[in-house]
Structures are given as C-alpha cells and as structure tokens.
Amino acid sequence: MHRYPRWPIHLILVGVSFVMLVPFYWVLKTSVTGENIFAYPPSVLPRAPHPFYYVDVWYYIPFARYFLNSVVVSTVAVIANVALNAMAGYALTRSFPAKRFVLLLFLSCMMVPFQATIIPAYLITGKLGLLDSYWGLALPQCSTIVCIFVFKASFDAVPRSLIDAARIDGLAEWRIIWKIMMPLAKGAIATNVILAFIWSWNNFLWPLIVTRSADMQTLPLGLARFLSYQEDTTGALYAFCIMVLAPGILLFLLAQKEFIRGLTSGATKG
Amino acid sequence: MSADDVEVSRWRHLLINRFVLVPAAIALAVVVWNIYVSTHNHGVITGIVVDPAGRSVPGATVVLWVLNFTTYVEKTRVTTDSAGRFVITDNDSHNIRLAAEKPDIGRSPRIPVRLYFRAQDIELREPLVLSGAS
User: Fold this and answer.
1) B91 and B75 in one domain?
2) A51 and B118 in contact by Cβ < 8 A?
C-alpha cells in the first residue's frame, strides 16, 4: 500500500521520456522527409514521407561493407568482453595477496582516458601485426574495467556456500565460472553484451587510427566519409544516422530487462 | 515428465525466445527482399508519351538521365513506338530523371523518378506529357 498516489510520478516520467525521445523522433522524421532542419515554423508531422534517402545512403557509400566490418568487430568485442571480464570478475571475488592494490589499480586505470593510451595501443597493435585487421580493430575493446566490476558485483551476490559445494564436488575453477556463476549472472552478461556492443559500434577514434584501407572502415568512419563526399544531404545524413543507430537500439530493446537487472545487481544485499 | 520431454522443452526454450525470433525475422525479411530485388532488377523502364490532349505520341524521343554522384548525366535515348510507348532497357541507377520531346509537339518537363533499388523494373504510372510547341 503506497502512502501517496503514484500517478503524478508516472505523469512526470512520461513527460521526461517524451522530452528525451524528441531528438530521436526529429532525426527519424528528417530521414524520411529531408526537410531543412532550420525551417521555421518546424513541422511536427512528416510531410510526404518516403524511404529514398535510405536507398541513397545504401548506394552512395559501400554501406554493406562498413556494416559487415562493424558487425564483425562488435561481435569479437562482445564475445571477448563476456569471456575475459567474467574471468577477471571472478578472480576479484577470490582472496589473493595484494587484492586491494589490484582493485585500486583497476579503479585508478578507469580515470585514464583512452586518448592518453592510444599511442602505446597503436604500437602494440603494430608489433603484433594486427594493423588494418578485424583483430586489431577489436583488440583494445576486448575488455573494459567497468564491465569487470559489473561481473564482480554479480558474482559477489552468489552465496559462498554454493561455490564451496561445487568445489567439494570436484569442479575446477574455470568450470565453477561457466557452470555455476555464469547461469546466475544473466543480468551481468546482458550488461556486458550491450555496453561492449554499443562502445564498439560507436567507436570512431580507434578505427580511424588503426585502419588504412577503405575496405576495413567501420560505420562511424563511413559517416565521416559520407559527410566529406556529399553536400545538401540533410535527409540522407539523417537516414545514415538511423541506419547506424538501429542495431544498437534493437539490441538494447531486446535485452533491456537483463541490462537493468545487471546494472543494479549487487546494489542491495540480503 | 520423461527425458525426451525435458530435451524438447530445453530446445524450445533455446529457440523460441526474442533473442532468436527477432534476428530470425529480420534475416527472413532480408532474404525475401533480396529474392525480390534479384528478380526485378533488369533495368527496364516503360511508359507512354502523350500530347496535351492526351493522345499518344509516336516517334517522340525519351531521354534518361542518371545520377552521377552529384549531377545528372544523360544515359540513353529511345523513341516511342506507334502506340506512344517507350521501353528503356539499360538503366542501372536508383535515382533517375526522364523527359520526352518531339519537335512539332513540344517537350515534357524533366521528371524525377526514385527507385527502391538500382535497375529496378518499373512502369511509369503517369505519362510524359508534351507541351509548349510554338
């Protein structure tokens, strides 16, 4: 029984959601009308919408190739994130010498922006012979500290007795991770998948530096190339934005329940 | 519940969920669309040319322009038959313009035609109307 009626809160939330969605609606509307975004008064509803700006984008640049590159790199990044972060997160739930130092190191490394480490990252990738390749594109995105802590928080919520029972039954540590911990950490997995996918999908700076051939470019680079090629492309530009955004939005909509559960797991105990 | 039932239930749980069904539906739509495209991309454009009174015009010249990145360039010319119909068979663009002319009758405005994919086969719904001869 709630002390106060909840509808005012819901009303405010609906209003805030509406405000948040307006830019998305505007991009979608412009992508099917191509109208001048500075037109005044602006039209709220689309006039004579058509899908041909999407057709233009498909043919102006090698969209399918960029899309394939982004899908491959994001898939590698997502799989590597789930596997590596789960192992790192599990290790951080165990007791070992200098654990506090390692945690402190991880937390402090989160404060270092990627731009500051991009030269050593480039040199390492070059030494490995991975420049201008899918592996080179995905390598720096294969593990993120935030996602390690998401797994750690999720694993911390698993009762110790369960792990002890598995160990008494003779399970090795890596089987405890995959057979016991991972099925109980679906929220953390979804969080890792979504965050790794979106970060990899939207990454611009690293692909810009590590790719040399046009065939290895990803969608954000394609967007920059598209802007440099075309003039008077309001409709096509917005259509391109929708085509780049759509996979990430779809993934989020599919896994939003698990994503929110993953972000809040470990926030409460007992 | 038998072991077979458990096995079937597990497969059903793995296959019938939104993470499988949504990508599968998208993949199916892509396959269907590509089949449609591959069977309708011969670059054939047909239409009819008429005079201001609506009578078909034989012997009119129809010009096809295609978008060459930022500008439209002339691609081909054809002549209408005795019924005023024209057939263009070598369009390879998705963004074209068409116009018709005949010295005695006049010329039509250059009309933009947008296609859903390159070399889409279409029949113009509206005829090219000649006008403006002195």
Assistant:
1) yes
2) no
CA distance A249 to chain B (A): 13
Q: Is A210 on the interface with B (CB under 8 A)?
A: no
User: Are residue B67 and residue B115 in the same domain, yes or no?
Assistant: yes
Does one domain contain both B56 and B116?
yes
* Same domain? B33 vs B52: no
Convert the pLDDT of each residue in A225-254 to its tens digit: 887 776 667 888 899 999 998 988 898 888
Cβ-nearest to B22 among A56, A60, A254: A254
Domain encompassing residue B85: 45-132
Nearest to B118 among A59, A254, A255 (CB): A59
Question: From the list A55, A231, A254, which residue is nearest B18 (CB)?
Answer: A254
Average pLDDT, chain A: 89
Same domain, B14 and B71: no
The domain total for chain B is: 2
Per-residue pLDDT tens over the stretch A155-188: 998 888 998 999 999 888 889 999 889 988 888 9
CATH of the domain at B112: 2.60.40.1120
Please name the member of A56, A250, A255 whose beta carbon is closest to the beta carbon of B95.
A56
CB pairs under 8 A between A and B: 24
Domains of chain A: 51-264 (1.10.3720.10)
Question: Which has more pLDDT, A258 or A204?
Answer: A204
Q: How far apart are CA A263 and CA A67, in angstroms?
A: 29
Residue of A270 and B42 predicted with greater confidence: B42
Instruction: Please tell me whether residues B64 and B22 are part of one structural domain.
Output: no
B88 and B51 together in one domain: yes
Residue of A nearest to B114 (CA): A52
CB pair distance less than 8 Å for B22 and A250: yes
With contacts defined as CB-CB under 8 Å, which chain A residues touch B18? Answer: 254
**B30/B55 same-domain check:** no
pTM of the model: 0.81
